[in-house]
Write a structure and sequence with these properties.
82% of the residues lie in helices and 0% in strands. It is built from 18 helices and no strands. Helix 1 runs parallel beside helix 6. About 2% of the residues have low confidence.
Length: 404
C-alpha cells in the first residue's frame, strides 16, 4: 500500500468517525433532547441536506480546478467549528431548534466542498485497482461510522457536550493526514502537459452533466442513486430514530445500536467483496440489492419485536454494502479523468437531491400514518424505480470495466 493511499485512508477515517458520531447525536438531539415532532425531525434533516443539492456541482468544479489537498486541509479545520459550538450550547443549556439547525447547515456546507475533491483523490492514489480501492474505502467508511456509533453509546454516561467536543477534535486532527496527500488536481496535470485549457465555469459544469446524461453506464446508475437517496436514506435517517422512540421507547444508545447494526451488515458485505475481488455483474448486483432493501423495509411495517427490528436493520445493511459499492465503483470506473470530480459530484448530487424531499415526505407520512406504516412508501417507490430502469436500459447486464 502506497504512502499516499495510507494518508488518504487516515484522512477519511478522521472525517468519518466524528461523522458517524454526529449521525446518531443529531437525531438524538431532535427526538430526545428537544422532543420535536416527526414533522420537525423530517424538516430538520431536510434543511441539513439542502446545501448538497445547491452546492455540489460547484464543489465538483472547484475540485477539478484547484488543489484538492488544500481544499481537504481547509475543510477539515472549518467543519470542526459546528460540533464545537453545539457542545458549548448544549453545556450552557442554550441549545434550541433554530441554532442547532443553523450550525448543522454550516457543517453541511463545509462537508459539501470536502466531498468531491475527497472522492476525486481516490483515483489519484488508487492506480489501476479502482474497484478494490473503492471497496477498501467504503469498508473503512462504514467501519469508521460504526466506531462513531460506538462513541455515541456513551452519551448517557459522559453527556452530549463532551462527545460533540470529541467530534470537533477529530475533524481538526484530520488536517494532518490531508497534508500528506498529493498536491494539485487532475486538471492541473492535464494543463501542465499542454492538453487542457481553462474553460468557463458554467461550461465545465454543463459538460459534466452532459457526460452523465449521455453515458449508457452512468445514466441508469445515477437514476437508481437518486431513488436511493429519495427513498432509502430518508427512511434510514428519519424513520429509524422515530421507530426507536415511538414504538420501542428508546434513546441515544438504542438509536446507536440500530444504526450500528445496519453498518455492521454493510461492513461484512464489503469485507466479502474485498476477499473475492469485487463483482463482475455490477448492474445486476446493484438492482437486486435495492429490491432486497424494499423487502426489508416492508417487514418493518408489521411492527416486529425489538430484537427482530435490530436484526432487520442489520440485514438491510447487507444490501447496502452492494448498493453503495456498485454505485460508486461504476462512476469511478466510467468517469474521464479530466472531469472525475464533476461526475462524482453529480453522483453525490443524485444521492443528496433526493434526501431532503425523502426526509420531509417520510416525516409527514410518519406523522399521519405512523412510522411503521410509513415504511411501506419508500419500499414501493424504490421497487417501481428499479423495474422502470430495468425495462428501459441494459443496466441489468452491466459488467465491470476493470478487475479489482
Amino acid at each position: 500500500m502506497s504512502r499516499a493511499l495510507k494518508a488518504y485512508l487516515a484522512a477519511n477515517a478522521a472525517f468519518l468517525v466524528p461523522g458517524g458520531l454526529q449521525t446518531v447525536l443529531f437525531p438524538w438531539l431532535l427526538v430526545v433532547v428537544l422532543a420535536e415532532s416527526p414533522e420537525r425531525v423530517g424538516l430538520a434533516q431536510m434543511l441539513t441536506q439542502i446545501p448538497a443539492v445547491v452546492l455540489l456541482l460547484v464543489a465538483g468544479l472547484l475540485g477539478d480546478r484547484f488543489d484538492q489537498r488544500r481544499i481537504l486541509i481547509v475543510t477539515s479545520v472549518l467543519v470542526a467549528a459546528s460540533p464545537l459550538a453545539i457542545a458549548w450550547l448544549l453545556a450552557a443549556h442554550r441549545l434550541t431548534f433554530d441554532n442547532l439547525i443553523a450550525l448543522a447547515v454550516f457543517g453541511s456546507i463545509v462537508g459539501v466542498f470536502s466531498g468531491p475533491p475527497r472522492d476525486a483523490m481516490l483515483s489519484r492514489v488508487a492506480g489501476e485497482r479502482i474497484q478494490f480501492t473503492v471497496i477498501l474505502v467504503l469498508g473503512l467508511q462504514f467501519l469508521s461510522q460504526i466506531i462513531g456509533y460506538g462513541f455515541a453509546l456513551a452519551t448517557d454516561l459522559v453527556g452530549g457536550p463532551l462527545l460533540f467536543a470529541l467530534a470537533a477534535a477529530m475533524y481538526a486532527l484530520g488536517a494532518w493526514p490531508c497534508a500528506l496527500l498529493p498536491r494539485g488536481s487532475v486538471n492541473d496535470d492535464e494543463r501542465a502537459g499542454g492538453r487542457a485549457a481553462p474553460r468557463h465555469a458554467l461550461a465545465e459544469i454543463l459538460a459534466g452533466l452532459r457526460e452523465a446524461a449521455q453515458s449508457e453506464r452512468l445514466r441508469p446508475a445515477l437514476i437508481l442513486t437518486l431513488a436511493l437517496g429519495s427513498f432509502f436514506f430518508g427512511a434510514f435517517l428519519v424513520l429509524l430514530p422515530l421507530i426507536v422512540r415511538d414504538v420501542y421507547h428508546g434513546g441515544a444508545s438504542d438509536i446507536s445500536l440500530v444504526f450500528g447494526a445496519n453498518m455492521i451488515g454493510t461492513v461484512i458485505v464489503i469485507a466479502v467483496l474485498m476477499h473475492r475481488g469485487g463483482v463482475v455483474r455490477q448492474g445486476r448486483a446493484f438492482m437486486l440489492a435495492l429490491l432486497f432493501g424494499c423487502v426489508l423495509l416492508s417487514l418493518l411495517a408489521v411492527g416486529p419485536p425489538r430484537s427482530m427490528f435490530l436484526l432487520l436493520s442489520f440485514v438491510w445493511g447487507l444490501g447496502g454494502g452492494f448498493t453503495l459499492t456498485m454505485g460508486r465503483t461504476i462512476v469511478q470506473e466510467s468517469a474521464p479523468p479530466e472531469m472525475s470530480a464533476r461526475l462524482l459530484s453529480v453522483y453525490a448530487l443524485c444521492t443528496s437531491a433526493g434526501m431532503p424531499i425523502g426526509s420531509l415526505a417520510i416525516g409527514y407520512a410518519a406523522q399521519r400514518l405512523g412510522p411503521l406504516v410509513a415504511a411501506l412508501l419508500p419500499a414501493i417507490g424504490m421497487a417501481t424505480t428499479v423495474v422502470l430502469v430495468g425495462a428501459t436500459s441494459r443496466f441489468w447486464h452491466l459488467e465491470a470495466k476493470h478487475s479489482a
